[in-house]
């Protein structure tokens, strides 16, 4: 197909509002879906850095949680409708600059998520064998940007944090590999886990059982892993007034506390793999030997009546050869987009991006974790998107007016033409369906739903039918 060099819209005509959404994960896809159902006449492109869509659901949810991964079905229904265009394998900053986005779109919504590990400033954090949980999750989920091997050499492991990511890391490390084989784990992950000598995973939380952030369902599932004992220690178990109130008034807290209480009363079954849940212990120092992790020193904490804790001065040492910090995610800064370094998010109010002086940056919006921080479940991003889209719709007249004031409005074809002129191997929705079918065929050959393709170049070649 041949195109003229450039197609220009008459900006005075009744044209669609051109919107780019950066990130094809749940946040970006929900935003596109909500925007497409407003009264605005819109033309929407979702621009994704990786050759595959779905973001956190594909690369952040543990492979043995197919129930959560079913969210992909809903996301695929949105992206496959035909009214929203996917431009995957396109990197903002190199393949397309912010100036390019301003030229080709009236509005840009940043939905890039939070994928980096939050820092933990304790002695020994930089020792060999100390890792961020986000990097490990990316490895076992087959993210193309991380190495294909992981140093699984530790028999005893510490996981710092009491959220669902900490449970995922502990479960994947402790689980017997045959129990993972029905999932979509790539071959390199299978091989790595099969070579792991890990038998004991210690999960540490600095506060008590009523303050942990595990979801009730994820916690109960932990106790159902075949061949793995889950051990909770009564000496790590305490409540204060605020804890009792939380357990009585919050349904989820009550369920979590009940599960943990039941586990303090049951005897281990003597399995060869164990997950130990330690509460009221705060990391003080990672101990090293010859530059490698050799243990972790924890300080016993005490509840203060209001659910907070402080150190008691009592220290406990645990022999571990690896430490994974699962203390939160942190957003990645995009050059030229105002960023709040204290919170790890794009600076915004209600999804409208703000500059350092607090003024709205015309045409820039944000949604999802990069808007509010990495808290809440995947479904919570819908309410984020609703707020952001409501504000974008309220700004629509101003966005159109700015274009009429001199900004040149281009045909949607011009973005694709620009990318092809720069020799960017753009993966469209139809191309993704080719890669999706290939992964499913790999799974069919092994009696599994799918097997992920990991190397980025291979993903692109398959999607673009070059393999």
TrEMBL record:
Catalytic activities: 2 reduced [2Fe-2S]-[ferredoxin] + NADP(+) + H(+) = 2 oxidized [2Fe-2S]-[ferredoxin] + NADPH
* Residue positions binding FAD: 27, 48, 56, 92, 369, 376-378
Ordered alphabetically, the record's keywords are:
FAD, Flavoprotein, NADP, Oxidoreductase
* GO terms for MF: ferredoxin-NADP+ reductase activity
**Enzyme class, one word?**
oxidoreductase
Is the keyword Flavoprotein in the record?
yes
Binding positions for NADP(+) per the UniProt entry: 206-207, 218, 376
Q: Which cofactor does it need?
A: FAD
EC number(s) on file: 1.18.1.2
Name the Pfam families for this protein. Pyr_redox_2
Q: Is DNA damage among the key words of this record?
A: no
Which Gene3D superfamilies does this entry report, sorted A to Z? FAD/NAD(P)-binding domain (3.50.50.60), NAD(P)-binding Rossmann-like Domain (3.40.50.720)
Residue ranges of domain FAD/NAD(P)-binding in the record: 18-176
Q: Which family does it belong to?
A: Belongs to the ferredoxin--NADP reductase type 1 family.
The entry's protein name is ferredoxin--NADP(+) reductase
**Native source species:** Demequina capsici
């Amino acid at each position: 197909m041949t195109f003229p060099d450039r197609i220009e819209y008459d900006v005075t005509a009744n044209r669609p509002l051109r919107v780019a959404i950066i990130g094809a994960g749940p946040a970006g896809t929900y935003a596109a879906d909500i925007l497409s159902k407003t009264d605005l006449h819109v033309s929407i492109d979702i621009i994704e850095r990786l050759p595959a869509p779905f973001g956190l659901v594909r690369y952040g949810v543990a492979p043995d949680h197919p129930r959560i991964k079913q969210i992909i079905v809903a996301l695929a229904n949105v992206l496959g409708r035909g009214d929203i265009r996917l431009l995957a394998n396109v990197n903002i900053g190199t393949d397309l600059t912010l100036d390019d986005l301003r030229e080709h779109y009236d509005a840009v919504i940043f939905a890039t998520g939070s994928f980096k590990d939050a820092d933990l400033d304790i002695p020994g954090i930089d020792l060999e064998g100390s890792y961020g949980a986000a990097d490990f999750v990316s490895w076992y989920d087959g993210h193309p940007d991380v190495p294909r091997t992981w140093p699984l050499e530790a028999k005893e492991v510490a996981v710092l944090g009491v959220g669902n990511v900490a449970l995922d890391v502990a479960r994947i490390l402790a689980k017997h590999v045959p129990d993972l084989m029905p999932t979509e784990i790539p071959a390199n992950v299978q091989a790595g886990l099969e070579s792991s000598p890990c038998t004991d995973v210690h999960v540490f939380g600095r506060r008590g059982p009523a303050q942990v952030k595990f979801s009730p369902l994820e916690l109960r599932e932990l106790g159902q892993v075949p061949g793995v004992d889950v051990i909770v220690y009564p000496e790590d178990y305490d409540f204060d007034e605020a804890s009792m109130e939380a357990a009585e008034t919050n349904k989820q807290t009550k369920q979590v506390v009940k599960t943990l209480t039941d586990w303090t009363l049951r005897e281990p079954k003597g399995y060869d793999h164990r997950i130990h849940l330690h509460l009221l212990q705060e990391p003080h120092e990672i101990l090293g030997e010859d530059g490698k992790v050799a243990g972790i020193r924890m300080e016993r904490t005490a509840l203060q009546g209001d659910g907070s804790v402080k150190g008691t001065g009592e220290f406990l040492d645990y022999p571990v050869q690896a430490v994974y910090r699962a203390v939160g995610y942190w957003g990645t800064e995009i050059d030229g987009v105002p960023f709040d370094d204290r919170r790890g998010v794009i600076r915004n109010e209600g999804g409208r991006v703000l500059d350092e002086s607090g003024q709205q940056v015309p045409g820039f919006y944000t949604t999802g974790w990069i808007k509010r921080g990495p808290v809440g479940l995947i479904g919570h991003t819908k309410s984020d998107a609703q707020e952001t889209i409501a504000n974008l719709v309220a700004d629509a007249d101003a966005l159109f007016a700015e274009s009429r004031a001199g900004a040149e409005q281009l045909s949607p074809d011009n973005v694709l033409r620009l990318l092809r002129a720069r020799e960017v191997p753009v993966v469209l929705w139809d191309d993704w369906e080719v890669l999706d079918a290939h992964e499913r065929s790999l799974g069919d050959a092994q009696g599994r739903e799918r097997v992920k393709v990991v190397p980025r170049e291979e993903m692109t070649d398959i999607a673009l039918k070059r393999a």
